[in-house]
Amino acid sequence: MTVFLWLPVLVPTVLGAIIAWRHSDAFARFVPLVVALVILACGIALVAKGQVVTSSVLRADATSSYVLLCVGAVAVVALWGGLSAQSLDVRSDALICAFLAAMSLAVLSDNLGVMWVAIEATTIATAFLVGHAGTRGATEAAWKYVVLGSVGVAIAFLGIVLVYASSRASGAPTLSWVALTSGGISLSPHLARAGVALAVLGFATKAGLAPMHSWLPDAHSQAPAPVSGLMSGVLLSVAMYAILRVQAVGAAHIGVGLVHGMLLTFGLLSLAVAALLTLTQRDYKRLLAYSSIEHMGIIALGVGSGTSLGLMAALLHMLGHGVVKAAMFVVAGRVLNVTGSSRIASVTGLLKRRPDLGWPFLVGSAALLGFPPFVTFFTEVAILVALTETGLWWAAGAAALLLLVTFIGIARQVLSMALGAPDLHPESGDHALVADRPSRFRTAPVAIALLSGAAISFLALVFVPVLGAAAAALGVSR
Amino acid sequence: MNASLTSSLVTTAVGVLLLTAVLQTWRRSAAGSVRLLVIQGLALATLVAALGASRGDVQLLVVAGVVALVKAGLLPWALGRTATGRLVERDSAVRPAIGLLGATVLTMFAYAVSDPLRGGDQSAAARAIPAGMALVLIGFWILLTRHSAVSQLVGFVVLDNGIAMVAFLTSDGLPLTVELGATLDVLLVVVILRTLTTRMRNTHGSTSVDDLTELRD
Fold first, then answer.
1. How far, in Å, CA of A151 to CA of B156, rounded?
2. A259 near A246, Cβ under 8 Å?
3. What is the mean pLDDT of chain A?
4. Chain B residues close to A191, C-beta within 8 Å
5. Cross-chain Cβ contact B170/A161 below 8 Å
6. pLDDT of res. A436
7. B196 touches chain A (CB under 8 A)
8. Alpha-carbon gap: B15 to the closest alpha carbon of chain A (Å)
9. In a 3-state reduction of DSSP, which class is residue A23?
């Protein structure tokens, strides 16, 4: 079984190095997709096995197996949909491989220090992908992304340093997550408290939670579509996974109140930021980015509720939101190719002009807005119920209100793009509308993602035991 | 190594680290900032070497060598290639005096709040932990008040030196793999930011982050 631990890290590293070395276009553009499929297969294998697998610094329990599956699933959607005629260059393909390797390592590492190194490596791998276009906007987005991302993650590093220092009290300092949560060692409480708080704050920056979110709309709107899909769909969730791990260390030694309070605050602030800025948004890629902040806020609220129901719903929300958001960025990228502008006002009548883009865009938006039968509906309801059950009815009420405002904001913008007179902008011409018609091969991942976003809801029998095991692995089982 | 020599080496190194950080808030030329970083890197390496020698820890001495190579060699070299001449006009949002004052206040604040982190340990190393926290805060201060790309990079490196200092003073550094991984990450971030600085000069015609105003809501 240990082979499933090493493949997700080694395959992208080796293949990425090969294409960077050989520099040939012929098969390079398919390599990221192959890597994504390998990661997905390993994730499914580990989840199906359902046992803890350990090898050197790598370790997969129910939580890491499930999140690895999410990484694989989202990556397949984003990279399959992103295979296009005007593919990225070879260097970008190699960087995407490095990005996938770093995310796999972050998820599968037992050592908090190695996890940190891997998360910082995701920033490094994606820096030039964000700045890929080379325009003023792309350079600006890349700069803000790297500075704020690195500084935020540096705070998390300080936190991990303090957690390590706090474990010296037990005689054998360690960063192993298993050792830190086993209860076999005692941490000095002052250091552990400061360490956990700083680590959560730092990783929350990387997870795009407000008020540390300001880099996110820039970076996610400037990156090429498949990279935006990966960053919005799953990189944010990997940062959230790091928070879950740190939270479990805190729960074992200093109680859960501190982390849960932080997550509830960040979660509500994120919903508020998303609500305010989607109402007045004029750029559809930024609209999707703010929707990601909203969904990370929902996940933070689920974790912050502290119940098993909330945590399970949050984990399922990661998968549901991830695949749909990846598909949405792919579709948005195609709309951008067709219209040449990411302004909402420059796109109208998409349903009539390009039904092959309009329908997925409309259906995907419905999934992001939490319409049944999409899984996001059920997880959002479950998280609100979890909050109410723990007596946080005020948080549930505020969240419901803010979700409603975001709903209005996004629905209004999306409908104005999908409906409306198709001939509002005749200058864009029919010529542009025929260009870049995606083949069936490239349309398939979007359809699969949207269908699975709905199908997951009806696979409760499959997912509930997996999610229950994932929550139990983090020590939340009440 | 005898205890008093270790103690005085640690104290001196910490003093130099703190002084170079405070002076950064006042420096006006890019080359000067980078020179201060070299001194700061050497002080950090001295600190690690003193701790390693006092504990008879060979691994820590190796780490001291790596720190000297990266923090006093590679990082300033990577930075120095863009940091020629003076920093952009109106680099700082605040006047030098206010910059210094801010650094002083932050240092005092760090000493006031970091006491619990010592956990009653009275060694020279433990007493220096607040200085590491002060470096972290001063790094933030530079990031907040300085607007040229190179100054922001300097702030990031000072912040990182502060974290490294806290790591060495509280627990003799992290496990070697993590230490090396983290060092490599920071080096790569600085190289990336330097490349982006060059690109920024090409696309924006300046390297002031004030000119990054394309993306807004």
1. 7
2. yes
3. 91
4. 116-117, 119, 170
5. yes
6. 54
7. yes
8. 21
9. coil
Chain B nearest-CA residue for A114: B178
pLDDT in tens, B55-72: 888 989 999 999 999 999
Query: Whole-angstrom Cα distance, residue A377 to residue A17?
Result: 41
Distance (Å, whole) CA B138 – CA A397 = 40
pLDDT over 90 at A430, yes or no: no
Residue contact A158–B136, C-beta within 8 A? yes
CA atoms of B149 and B159, how far apart (whole Å)? 15
Written as one string, the DSSP assignment of A293-333 is HHHHHHHHHHHHT-SHHHHHHHHHHHHHHHHHHHHHHHHHH
Rounded CA separation A33/A79 (Å): 5
Looking at residue B173, what is its pLDDT?
83
Does the pLDDT of residue A327 top 60, yes or no? yes
CA distance A327 to B103: 48
Give exposure, A400-419, as e/b (b: 16+ Cβ within 10 Å).
eebbebbbebbeebbeebbe
pLDDT given for residue A478 in this prediction: 57
Task: List the domain boundaries for chain A.
Answer: 2-473
Q: Tokens 């020179």 belong to which residue?
A: B35
Q: Point out the least confidently predicted range of A145-154, A294-303, B121-130.
A: B121-130
Structure ipTM over 0.90, yes or no: yes
Residues of B in contact with A116 (CB under 8 A): 178, 182
Does B189 lie at the interface with A, CB-CB under 8 angstroms? yes
Q: What is the pLDDT of residue A390?
A: 93
Task: Report CB contact under 8 Å: B170, A191.
Answer: yes
Q: pLDDT tier at A433 (50, 70, 90 boundaries)?
A: very low
| Packing angle, helices A112-130 and A215-222, rounded to 10 | 60
CB atoms within 10 A of CB B202: 11
Which of A44, A52, A39 lies closest to A8, judged by CA?
Answer: A39
Cα-Cα-Cα-Cα torsion A441, A445, A450, A453, nearest 10 degrees, comes to 150
- What pTM, to 2 d.p., does this model score? 0.94
Residue of B nearest to A116 (CA): B182
From CA A267, how far away is CA A293, in angstroms rounded?
9
Specify the 3-state DSSP secondary structure of A347: coil
Judge whether residue A437 has pLDDT over 80: no
Mutate to test the interface with B, among A158, A186, A342 (most CBs of B within 10 A): A158
**A181 shares contact with chain B (CB less than 8 Å):** no
Does A172 score more than 90 pLDDT? no
- From the list A131, A194, A286, the residue facing B117 with the nearest CB is A194
- Name the one residue in this structure whose structure tokens are 């948004």: A281
Helices (H), A167-283: 177-181, 189-206, 215-222, 225-230, 236-253, 257-279
| A283 phi-psi bin (left φ>0, alpha ψ -120 to 50, beta other) | beta
A432 pLDDT band, cuts 50/70/90, is very low
Q: Considering CB atoms only, which of A135, A146, A218 is closest to B192?
A: A146
Rounded Cα distance, A286 and B214, in Å: 13
**Helices then strands, each counted (H, E), chain B:** 10, 0
Cβ of residue A143 closer than 8 Å to a chain B Cβ: yes
Nearest CA-CA distance, residue A477 and chain B, Å? 32
Chain B partners of A165 at a C-beta cutoff of 8 Å?
Answer: 117, 166-167, 170-171
